[in-house]
Amino acid sequence: MNGYLGESDFTMVEEGFTARDLLENLLVELCQTSDQGTYFMADLGDIVKKHLRFLKALPRVTTYFPVKCNSSGGVVRLLAELGAGFACASKAEIAQVRSIGVPADKIFYCNPCKQVAHIKYAASHGVQLMTFDNEVELSKVARSHPHARMLLGIAADFSPSACPSVKFGATLTYCRHLLEKAKEQAVEVVGISFHLGSHCLDPQAFSQSVAEAQLAFEMGTELGYQMHILDIGGGFPGPEDTRARFEEIAAAINSALDLYFPEGCGVEVVARPGRYYVTSAFTFAASVTAKEEVPPGQPGSEGRWDAQLYDANALLPCDRSISPVQKPCPDHPSYSSSLRGPPGHAEDRIADGLELPELQVGDWLIFEDMGAYTITTSSLLGGCPQPQITYAMSRVAWEAVQLFQGKPPQAEEDRESLCTPLSCGWEIAETLCVPPVFTPTGII
């Protein structure tokens, strides 16, 4: 084992239950003695499953997890244990992964807009792999980090992103100019990078981006660079119900790699899956702290309730599955309901038009698929404490981690004292082959 994650870092559970089951049991236990109004339940076994699935679907691709997607300690330690690298966007993220012993050569400083102080910090801690897509970034790195190994980021905008943002990346027509400028400043360019953005579900977008990356590779080679790294970025879907689409994307990527970067060509392929790893692993609970019936006569007031949730507004994407912990009685009506975060926040709207039973103060709502971009700082929560995160992993998943590192599984007689009679529902289906370390069976 690498020693990043140990059995004391999570609750060992047996098979048969889901993360929601564990969270509901936790609420029953803790809510009598704790005034905490929000909780996360993290199924680390789900992340193990996703990692093994990724290795099977894309055997040539090495993963670098974007820390900004989920910086919780259990996630970072588990992925380090599994041998993943880390894509960091700031000095703080580099410091976090270095603090647990992740070597500098497993860190990719991939922020397209880097602060000079952060570039110098990366240089002083041996982090060399970085990206650039314009002359300003190139000049900053040339002055502050002479030993950097740079990837030229190219534009990849072939399908709409579910979370639109400012697009980064140089056009192909601008790439040669940037490569020539890098040569003038003695900057080592070692490859090409692209990133398709959140929830890019068009497999052909990946294929086209790989094709354009190959053209940029040729430009670099013509200028004398030793181009040997291709970063295909992120954009891989995370919810479990998108597994078929992920496999379509993986098939398209494999075909494109075979065509433009065939095995044996000397090019290392890396990716930055974030939502893919953690979305479905986290389930969130928030308690109702206030309620209000919309007065009659207001538009849409008939049968409508507003509920306020404890410290939840900065955490809850509005497209998640939401349901109460308490099972609604079939005889009780449902109401068109709105959910709000704590007052005093500029954006406290969580969801509108939900059909929910009448909720009472103290009731709990469960939000599923909550692992991506939901772990935030207390400053973003208006000074409120971070939600408590409880990590759990099934014995089968933990044994898979041990096998992945070449450690024999635990003897049967040693297991009983370690496991509670609950589980995060490890999926048993097909044989998964991840050579050469081991060939686990009955994992996915």
TrEMBL record:
Extract the SUPFAM superfamilies matched here: Alanine racemase C-terminal domain-like (SSF50621), PLP-binding barrel (SSF51419)
Keywords linked to the UniProt accession: Lyase, Polyamine biosynthesis, Pyridoxal phosphate
The yes or no answer to whether the keyword Lyase is present is yes
Q: Which cofactor does it need?
A: pyridoxal 5'-phosphate
| All residue ranges annotated as the Orn/DAP/Arg decarboxylase 2 C-terminal domain in the record | 306-371
Stored PROSITE patterns: ODR_DC_2_1 (PS00878)
What GO molecular functions are on record for this protein?
Answer: carboxy-lyase activity
Pfam family membership, one: Orn_DAP_Arg_deC
Alphabetical GO biological process terms: putrescine biosynthetic process from arginine, via ornithine
Region Disordered, annotated ranges: 327-347
Q: Name one GO cellular component term.
A: cytoplasm
Every copy of the Orn/DAP/Arg decarboxylase 2 N-terminal domain together lies at 44-278
Q: Which Gene3D superfamilies match?
A: Alanine racemase, Lyase, Ornithine Decarboxylase, Chain A, domain 1
Role of this protein = Catalyzes the first and rate-limiting step of polyamine biosynthesis that converts ornithine into putrescine, which is the precursor for the polyamines, spermidine and spermine. Polyamines are essential for cell proliferation and are implicated in cellular processes, ranging from DNA replication to apoptosis.
Tell me which family the UniProt entry assigns to this protein.
Answer: Belongs to the Orn/Lys/Arg decarboxylase class-II family.
Report the protein name in the record.
Ornithine decarboxylase 2
Q: Which organism is it from?
A: Struthio camelus australis
